[in-house]
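S1.2 Input.
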Amino acid sequence: MSIKRDILNPLLSKYESSVHFRNEAKVNRRVVLQLRQPLYDFENPTNKLAVHRVIDDLNKKGIIRVHWVQGEEGNIIQQVELDLDNVHQAYKEINRKPKHNLLREAIEDLQQFTKTSHQWLNSFATQQSENIGNRHSLPQLVPEDRHQRQHMLKCLCAIAQSDGEEMLERVFSKRTFGDSKYFEQNLRANIASILKGWLFQDAELSTNEALQQAGLHRSSD
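S1.3 Output.
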């Protein structure tokens, strides 16, 4: 267990969901984490000392502020508060990529397909890019992992360029990714959802039906 990560990760997640992240804060709302078991057991001397050491270090670095239980100042911690003027250092401290960077990369990846000649792919990429900019979060259909996201977009582009050519899914996967199982194991459901929403505009289609209409078949039967 990393005490530092267990403190900073939830604080940063709260920050990323807050009005501060979206630059919409009208009042100075705090981003805080209540310290409770099992992370912080002040009746366990070993645990208490370990947590206090980490928090003291983070406090000295200006990453967090400490709030003590009333009457137990210096002895029992009630909560810690993220210093909003030093958030960048909190990310660095646990080697976590800032969400602003993740969103920017996703927009960059999507924008490569916003001027394609395939209207449905253009529409998908444009809408998802705009959603990220407006909502400051990744849509459900856009993977957070950049490698997986780029493979998804590569797959959509390959489907668009195939123009309905009939082939087995494993053949398509081998041709596109050099791995006959990659499409089925990593992309199948997500790709089908996008095809239903943007290529066929028919939410009633099943996953198999959407892929078959795009020319991809699970078997030769």
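S1.4 Remarks. The first strand starts at residue 32 and ends at 34.
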